[in-house]
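step 3/5: co-fold with zinc ion
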Amino acid sequence: MCDLLTILSLSPYCRLLFVDNEFSTIKLKMEDSSGRDHVVVVRLGAGYPYKAPDCCVDLPVAFSISWTPQTNIQDIYNQVLSTLESLKGFWDTLDEIDTKTWVLEPEKPTRSATMRRIAIGNNVSITIDLDPRHPNMLPECYFLGADHVVQPLKDKLNSNVHLWDPDVGLLQNLKDILEIDFPSKSDLKKSDFTMDCGICYAYRLDSAIPDQVCDDPHCAQPFHQACLYEWLNGLPSSRQSFNIIYGECPYCTKPITLKLLNKPF
Ligand SMILES: [Zn+2]
Ligand SMILES: [Zn+2]
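step 4/5: write tokens
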């Protein structure tokens, strides 16, 4: 308890949010050096101080306290703080993406979320998955959209990958390598990129989004996998070969294919 008061009086970056009557659950709000708030919940179990307390923080990496019976709450605070600081680059990178681009998923990213799906244009987006320990390295990238739009982006990524500069932010690197500008938040609305499924007229179907897009450049209508699967299955003219179903787009009647990757339904 004395430790707790010491921290609260010493650090202007730590605030007590909650403590229960037994002083066994302590909830703190900690601010990192970039001004981001983090909620830390410390539970001192029955074995305390011989057993390490539980410490919950929303982090993209595993975290546990290194503990001896001499470890006090001040040490816990310091350990959490140094972990938060070690992730500064990761969060700075994602904060820049969240403020400057249209992030389609996750809808409300938590501090542990390493993935972002970013709108590039109408029905085209890139999904990146960042390594929290190496936020300046080229992340895993996946594109979503019609083939004729996605293929040139994949080609750019492959041919320009040597231009990746770890000293430049991720967003700038993506712009340079893909030779694109991300749609700005000031000119466009999120609904400009989140087009509803052409079959069920909804955006979300359970948790799925319309990620199958008609390849015809004039149509480019998106569909949910499950909706398109049902539609194509109901067509007498459609056929399946291995894991690909061939049929016609419900909108423009041009040929459309559906790859059954991992059956999401
Ligand atoms: Zn649908
Ligand atoms: Zn179509």
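step 5/5: annotate
The longest helix spans residues 73-86.
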